[in-house]
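Inverse folding, one chain.
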């Protein structure tokens, strides 16, 4: 018997999990991820807690994640809203880092503009405008790129 937990997340986070990890009947298995799975297990509990935080309307996609039998019986099977938001931040950080690596590598290696690299990223991995809009990706890429450039300049001094 397989045990699952339900997670509400943003569209692009759900899509990232679906393309990055194996899934069986819409149940995503992240148990092989040595960073993300322990973070999930650490946040799981039994459903006797009070949710002090309301989930934003941005967390509109509900996905199922596979959890171990041991985790189910020892810890529980649900995440509080606070834990769900903190776990989503981890997924979003991984997704954004993956996007930045792809786009910056394409810009450096292929000698194309960042705009074209973002379009290639969307086409390659199926991030449509509805899932993750071009403008949002562009903002995130620039935000991360500026941070990287600032750190590089400090190291060179």
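Residues assigned per position:
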């Amino acid at each position: 018997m397989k045990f699952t937990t339900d997670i509400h997340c943003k569209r692009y986070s759900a899509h990232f999990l679906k393309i990055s990890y194996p899934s069986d009947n819409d149940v995503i298995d992240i148990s092989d991820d040595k960073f993300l799975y322990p973070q999930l297990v650490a946040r799981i509990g039994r459903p006797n807690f009070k949710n002090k935080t309301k989930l934003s309307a941005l967390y509109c996609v509900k996905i199922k994640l596979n959890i171990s039998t041991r985790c189910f019986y020892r810890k529980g099977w649900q995440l509080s809203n606070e834990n769900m938001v903190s776990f989503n931040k981890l997924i979003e950080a991984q997704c954004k880092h993956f996007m930045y690596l792809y786009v910056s590598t394409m810009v450096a290696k292929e000698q194309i503009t960042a705009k074209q690299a973002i379009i290639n990223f969307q086409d390659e991995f199926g991030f449509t405008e509805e899932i993750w809009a071009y403008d949002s990706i562009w903002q995130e890429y620039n935000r991360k790129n500026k941070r990287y450039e600032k750190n590089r300049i400090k190291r060179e001094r």
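Residues 9 and 59 are 4 Å apart (CA to CA). Helices lie at 11-20, 36-43, 69-74, 81-110, 114-125, 134-156.
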